[in-house]
Amino acid sequence: MGQRRHQLGGIDDVTISNGRLSARILSFGASLADLRLAGVEWPLVLGFKSPEAYIKHGLYFGAVIGRYANRIANARTQIKGETVILDQNDGPHHLHGGRASLARRRWKLHERRDSAVVFKISSPDGEGGYPGKLWASAIYSIVEQTTLRLDLVAECDRPSPVNLCHHPYFNLAGGGSISEHSVIIRSDHVLPSDDELIPTGELLPTVDTQYDLRSKCRMAELWKKRPFFNNTYCRPQTGHGLWNAARLECGSIAMDVATDQPGIHFYDGYKVATTVSGHGGCMYGSRQGLCLEGQNWPDSPNRPDFPEAILLPGEVYRRRVEYRFSRLSKIIQ
After folding, report:
1. What Pfam family is a match for this entry (predicted)?
2. DSSP letter at 133?
3. I need a labelling partner for 43 at 20 to 30 A (CA). Which of 88, 127, 128, 137 fits?
4. What are the two backbone dihedrals, phi and then psi, of residue 15, each rounded to the nearest 5 degrees?
5. Torsion of CA 236, 63, 320, 313, to 10 degrees
6. What are phi and psi for residue 36, nearest 5 degrees?
7. Residue ranges for the binding site for beta-D-galactose?
């Protein structure tokens, strides 16, 4: 139990624990590098032992994404009548904050306790094309015995698009294919996208479609309906605060994802291919980890009918995601 810290190559490597759940977080990208549940011998997320590996592979493993997670079409938007031109790093589009993404930056270790750690970062005016300076914090904490909570906070000094999100790849079996994982996403609507993964603007009801994940379904069965998943599911209109957005099960382990974000993005990891060995010395490949990312809707800055995505000076951006672990065979004691 407790907090452990060491530094290698200018990257802080911190482990927080309450004896039942432990999380290893790096200052590079404020990345969740390892997550362990007491009584389980394997990691629950994909990751690397060496902090330097996170610099090399560039796949956002466990990172905090920003300034804007997911895509902004044609890498541009309008703010109060002025055109904002962003970094093009996904064909003609802007993805995950561009080449200067917060996921690719060293955050500053600000505070640490036994079961919590705080990282902070600032992004200068114009970085990645974004107007204004941004200040952001990532607060990891272990709460309620087996829940990992992440609070994301930001402020800016000019109107600017902000959409921070967490990007861990989960594999509750510790490695190998995720085909035997079962997923539930508690959403009635999904955002279809075009061939370049830009939302079409339609809010598609999921009922009786290949996107319907309201009932538990194995990944192996889902892939028979659809070759891959890389879509944002919309929060139901009712309720406030955290919503129980998704559930993942494999073997005797279950994880519920709760967030206050407007959507949850489901990515099945079909494009993953690492050149650096991960936990246990294995190379990660396609469909060996999946993401359930609480976030705003993609391309919201260009769509007035989508949730608000512009943060104004004087406002405080606050978002939360919780990963709640349990055992299917018995309640964790």
Report:
1. Aldose_epim
2. -
3. 137
4. -115, 130
5. -100
6. -130, 140
7. 70-71, 167-169
Any idea where the domains of the chain sit in the sequence?
Answer: 4-327
Residue 210 corresponds to which tokens in the numbers above? 């290949």
In degrees, rounded to 5, the angle at the alpha carbon of residue 1 between the alpha carbons of residues 33 and 16 is: 30
Residues 198-227: tens digit of each pLDDT? 999 999 999 999 999 999 999 999 999 999
Return all residues near 201 (Cβ < 8 A) that are at least 6 apart: 303, 305
Within a 13 Å sphere around the CA of 96, how many CA atoms are in the beta-carbon half? 22
CA 160 and chain centroid, separation: 20
**Which of 167, 181, 189, 265 does the annotation list as catalytic?**
167
Residue 144 annotated to the active site: no
Amino acid in the structure at residue 231: N
Looking at 2.70.98.10, 3.20.20.70, 1.20.140.160, 2.160.20.10, the CATH number of the domain 4-327 comes to 2.70.98.10
Catalytic residue, from 127, 155, 249, 293: name it: 293
308 is catalytic: no
Q: What are the binding residues?
A: 70-71, 167-169
CA gap 316, 313 in Å, rounded:
8
Residue with tokens 């650096």: 276
Per-residue model confidence as pLDDT tens digits over 240-249? 799 999 999 9
Predicted model pTM: 0.95
Query: What is the rounded distance in angstroms from the CA atom of residue 69 to the CA atom of residue 216?
Result: 27
